[in-house]
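Case study: ANTAR domain-containing protein.
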Amino acid sequence: MATRLLQNFNGGHALIVTAAPGSEGALVATLAKLGVSAEYPPLVDGRADVAVGELKSDRDILFVDGDLEGAVELPIDPETRLAPIPVIGLVGVEAPSRLKALVNLGASAFLRKPVHGGAVYASLFMGINQFLMRSDLSNRIQDLEARRRSRRAVISATLTVMRETGLDEDQAYSRLRRESMRSRLSLEHYCEMLLSEQRLAPDRPGCSESLPLPGRRPEAL
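Here is what the predicted structure looks like once written out:
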């Protein structure tokens, strides 16, 4: 299912990191017209005073002046290169090193300085929706990885049942499915628990004969 694109930014909250608040152009005035409040986090020893732990991805947007060096430090996901919230770079000097620094900070859109009102909506649209789509893609990949790891447990449990009962592959798989349904667990979770019990009691013979769950008495099928 495709990520739903956000088109209305009313209720958003922008944090604008710059050394000269108000000098970036029409940014704040245009954000206000779009229903987005704005504030300038103070710089303390060249570093923006941003409470990272309080940022909310469904509300906050960070604008960072690319002419500042090391003004913001955010936890960046090593795989997606995403920050906790959408980041939009304010670009003055288009030096590759400064653009790279903004990308490494998680920027998914840019605005040229001085900011013209007509460019703000497009930048918000691109920056926020790129953030949402990449976040959604990351979540899907993580879900697929978790399912792939779970399927390995199903295969291992099926082979164990085949080895210890003499059943063929289809019969062993069906047996695991019946027991997982009886236990009101997903097949993957049931197989993980079965293998975990085997690891805890590796010397118990025929432990798959009755497919017991940890903490429960074995019941013959």
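For the exam, be able to explain this: Helices lie at 27-33, 96-104, 117-165, 169-182, 187-200.
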